[in-house]
Amino acid sequence: MTTTQKEIRSLEPWFHNIHLPDGNQTAPNHFLGDFPFFKWKKIKKSIPEDLTGWKVLDIGCNAGFYSIEFARLGAEVLAIDVDVHYLKQAKWTAQKFGLSDQITFRHMQVYDLVKVEEVFDLVWFMGVFYHLRYPVLAMDIVSQKAKNMMVFQTLSIPGYEKMNIPEDIEFTNREIMKDPAFPYMAFIENCFAGDPTNWWIPNHQCIVSLLNNCGFRLYEIPEDETYIVFKDSTKIPDFSSWNYSEFLSATGRNWQEEINAKIKKK
Fold first, then answer.
1. pLDDT for 104-113, tens place per residue?
2. Of 224, 228, 229, 227, which Cα lies nearest the Cα of 159?
């Protein structure tokens, strides 16, 4: 057994099977197959081949497969995860590729991004949404960090039913909410697939509507449950049009001071 193989074993278990420069793989017997390479193979067609000068945010980076791919395309990457074990794997893997200078790893929750001043050309938001107890709050935060493109993936309710969402739903027209295509998320009270951190599973229209509401337009769906979206200036949410104090309070900011400061500027 080589030194690299011993290091791979010492860092088990792996959820990303990463093909290392020396030919070794981190999880060659992965239960999903060559994961996540087979997903990347489909999605990368929607990603520019040259990301030089781009800033990329990888939310829930795991062992760093995608962060490494972005760095190899020339991007500077901020990779975050809440799992210290995954971050240890990711830092080790980045060193093996000689990409440590291009990737910054941080032990962070998605909600902590509200404290990050940077904005990113590409936000990679995959495999995280359905693990969040406060998903819409997370989406509001993430939407303010994306200035151009986002790749969003979530476990979802089977099907791609869609509908034209009314501008205003009348109080007496709540029957529309029974339509299978109406945007909704199923709440998981206990466990899903044996995992107690699976909280919400949205349907297709919920994903599209939520992305629209957060200022994105759908470009394409290159892989099942994966949405390529771009910032749309005609959809940018006007936070002052709803209870912005709720967002400020939920993110630990002094909403009285910030709103009063805005009023004084006017």
1. 999 999 999 9
2. 224
